[in-house]
Write a structure and sequence with these properties.
- Keywords: Membrane, Transmembrane, Transmembrane helix.
- This is Short-chain dehydrogenase.
- It comes from Ammoniphilus oxalaticus.
- With about 80 residues, the protein is mainly alpha-helical.
- It has a domain of about 35 residues.
- It is elongated.
């Protein structure tokens, strides 16, 4: 594997970690003194699509498919 590929994947992983950290810090500051007051009507209407775990599964699946597609094109391997 070329060093360029390692560099790109490392930068993508670091970018993902930084974005996750910043998002987590913002949520902690926002919810510091907040108490739960029930479920919002938007979440009640769409319980699956607004679930962060479900969205994470979709995101990771998309990334894996993109990586497989990249290897297929880069190495011309017939999948």
């Amino acid at each position: 594997m070329s060093s360029l590929l390692y560099t790109v994947l490392t930068i993508a992983a670091l970018l993902l970690l930084v974005v996750g950290l910043i998002t987590s810090i913002r949520l902690v500051k926002q919810q510091k003194g907040e108490q739960d007051h029930g479920v919002s009507p938007t979440v009640k209407a769409n319980p699956r699509t607004l679930n962060p775990v479900f969205l994470s599964y979709i995101f990771v699946f998309t990334i894996v498919v993109m990586i497989i597609w990249f290897f297929r094109l880069y190495y011309k391997y017939p999948f």
